[in-house]
Amino acid sequence: MGFIIFVMMLFAVxxxxxxxxxxxxxxxxxxxxxxxxxxxxxxxxxQRHDELTNLIEVCKGYMEYERETFVKLxxxxxxxxxxxxxxxxxxxxRSATEAVxxxxxxxxxxxxxxxxxxxxxxxSRITALESQIADRRxxxxxxxxxxxxxxxxxxxxxxxxFLQLHPKPMFKADASExxxxxxxxxxxx
Length: 189
Description:
Elements: H1 2-60, H2 67-82, H3 86-107, H4 111-115, H5 117-152, H6 156-162, H7 175-178
């Protein structure tokens, strides 16, 4: 009789241990998904950073009087190069997105620039990169949401607390990205 109780307890302890390991592995997989999602965003940000360098060079010859626009782009590029954390890179990304938007808006005033093949290719490439970055931000936020939700649910919360896992921040748009963009249309005669 004692042997049967011993075997039952052994199975119970083994089952609990197996369940804890399963939860742990699930949390590790989610954490790794977040890191992979951020790495994918980082790759796209690097590509955009490289394209901005080319775009600035193409635009400089045409846009002699747009110093403020170039300064903002240079600051955004510098901020991105110095960023180490996810939050710092996210802030640098917001600055770059704002600066690129302003550059494209200002470029409308320079028909020769808008007709330049290099500019059109770079504008198209950067626009495509912006779309891909947005898609990857969405995947990153989905991964973070799943991870943070699991960390708050029982019994995952106990294991996450034991492993000292902490919630991850979502990638959020800042106020300037949420505000409506003013659009004007000039009618030529």
